[in-house]
């Protein structure tokens, strides 16, 4: 089987999922994965290949036509076609994305399985469709079956000229997190590989990385980016941590967490949005898995909503941090506020003296929850200014904790009420928090040196 992703550069989930699937151990046959088929377009986040003439800019129209045959057009299509042809694949899968849900509109093929009409391909496609639809509750978002692939596409050419059982798997970008779309791709490919007896029961759709030991010397970070998150917080965290040498950063959804995906990581980061909505989407079982993950030695970094989630004052909270909010009125407003690091905070984040600016957006005001089974938190930074809109109580924010560190079982926790990941000049803060919760001083020192 040959799997390709990233043929169109503005369809990142296919490339993302293919890069994860390549780690799956195969028990029968051969699996060849080309995760980023169009590197230039992916880097530019463009559907078409930058710098190519208009007639050949769409890579997935440049392969030999079904009836006409002939040669592929352009250097990249020629290289991809020659490589695919040399593999002599029995099966070919191309991972794509559409702009909208095909069940709701004929203007997009998003959320569909597009099958080249071979007997084996048509036989297994309904099982692939059923498996991914079993993960979707909204009927309008469910996958449809279509075919054949568009003429000039790599999948159509593989079916017509190489005799492969070929299909395109399309997720939908609209209103769906990258983690959810990548998971849908993994579910579909997993179903096909399982049908062909190419994988055994040890491989699940939650497998996203090369397996590592809990004591791996580099951070492996799961960034939650699905229901309840908001704005650019998850994207910024993933980008900033991903720049650290050796760091592995993967965006995950609630289904991933509930399925046991955290076993591949040593840190989970939960960004801004709504703490209660994040809790609801992760679910009770998912929250239990996060608690067990931290208790067993994993790190937790929470920002704004992720800090709310960690606290002990809400029924939906993780209750891994001995903190609560002094008032139920949380909507204090959005502002740039002043922070000041403590001595411990300077050890973690760098020697920043005096007050400095940081973005704030309704983050929690923290005070001790006095839970006897939890150790006290340690303050890493204080608020030195205040915002108190929407009838929130004044006077409780200034000089209260802005960033705190704690422990739960064998694990470490850092929670930030404001948003350093969205503040110019503080882009290294979350990477340094990751370094601290993993207990990797050398990584923190390198981050501080930059």
The proportion of strand residues reads 15-25%
Low-confidence stretches: 441-450
Helix/strand/pairing category: alpha/beta
Integer-rounded radius of gyration = 24 Å
- SSE arrangement, N to C: EHEHHEEHEHEHEHEHEHEHEEHEEEEEHH
In angstroms, what separates the terminal alpha carbons? Answer: 43 Å
Q: What is the name of the CATH architecture of the largest domain?
A: 3-Layer(aba) Sandwich
Secondary structure elements and pairings:
Blueprint: E1 2-5, H1 12-21, E2 32-34, H2 39-44, H3 75-87, E3 91-98, E4 112-115, H4 119-133, E5 144-146, H5 154-162, E6 165-172, H6 178-195, E7 220-224, H7 233-242, E8 248-252, H8 254-258, E9 267-270, H9 275-295, E10 299-303, H10 305-310, E11 323-324, E12 334-341, H11 343-349, E13 355-361, E14 367-368, E15 378-383, E16 401-408, E17 411-416, H12 429-437, H13 441-449
Parallel strand pairs: 1-2, 1-3, 3-6, 4-5, 7-8, 7-9, 9-10, 10-17
Antiparallel strand pairs: 4-6, 11-14, 12-13, 12-15, 15-16, 16-17
Helix pairs in contact: 1-6, 4-6, 12-13
């Amino acid at each position: 089987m040959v799997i390709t992703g990233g043929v169109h550069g503005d369809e990142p989930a296919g490339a993302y999922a293919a890069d994860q699937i390549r780690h799956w151990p195969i028990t029968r046959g051969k699996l060849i994965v080309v995760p980023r088929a169009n590197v230039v377009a992916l880097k530019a986040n463009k559907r078409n290949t930058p710098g190519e003439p208009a007639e050949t800019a769409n890579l997935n129209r440049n392969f030999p036509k079904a009836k006409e045959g002939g040669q592929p057009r352009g250097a990249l299509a020629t290289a991809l076609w020659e490589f695919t042809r040399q593999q002599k694949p029995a099966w070919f899968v191309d991972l794509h994305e559409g702009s909208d849900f095909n069940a709701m509109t004929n203007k997009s093929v998003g959320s569909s399985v597009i099958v080249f009409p071979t007997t084996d391909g048509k036989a297994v496609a309904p099982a692939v469709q059923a498996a991914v639809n079993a993960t979707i509750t909204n009927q309008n978002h469910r996958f449809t079956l279509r075919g054949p692939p568009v003429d000039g596409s790599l999948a159509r050419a593989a079916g017509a000229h190489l005799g492969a059982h070929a299909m395109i798997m399309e997720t939908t970008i609209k209103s769906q997190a990258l983690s959810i779309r990548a998971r849908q791709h993994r579910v579909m490919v997993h179903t096909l590989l399982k049908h062909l007896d190419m994988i055994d029961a040890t491989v699940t759709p939650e497998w996203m990385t090369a397996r590592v030991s809990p004591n791996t010397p580099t951070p492996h970070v799961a960034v939650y980016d699905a229901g309840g998150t908001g704005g650019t917080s998850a994207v910024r965290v993933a980008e900033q941590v991903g720049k650290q040498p050796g760091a592995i950063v993967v965006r995950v959804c609630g289904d991933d967490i509930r399925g046991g995906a955290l076993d591949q990581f040593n840190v989970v980061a939960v960004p801004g949005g709504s703490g209660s909505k994040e809790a609801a989407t992760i679910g009770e079982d998912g929250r239990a898995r996060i608690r067990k993950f931290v208790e067993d030695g994993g790190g937790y970094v929470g920002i704004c909503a992720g800090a709310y989630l960690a606290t002990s004052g809400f029924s939906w909270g993780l209750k891994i941090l001995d903190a609560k909010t002094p008032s139920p009125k949380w909507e204090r407003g959005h502002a740039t506020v002043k922070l000041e690091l403590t001595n411990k905070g300077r050890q973690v984040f760098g020697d920043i003296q005096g007050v400095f600016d940081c973005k704030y957006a309704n983050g929690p005001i923290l005070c001790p929850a006095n839970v006897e089974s939890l150790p006290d938190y340690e303050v890493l930074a204080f608020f030195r200014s205040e915002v108190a809109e929407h009838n929130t109580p004044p006077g409780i924010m200034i000089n209260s904790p802005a960033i705190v560190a704690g422990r739960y079982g064998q694990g470490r926790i850092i929670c930030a009420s404001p948003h350093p990941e969205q503040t110019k000049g503080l882009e290294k803060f979350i990477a340094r928090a990751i370094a601290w919760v993993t207990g990797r001083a050398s990584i923190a020192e390198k981050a501080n040196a930059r």
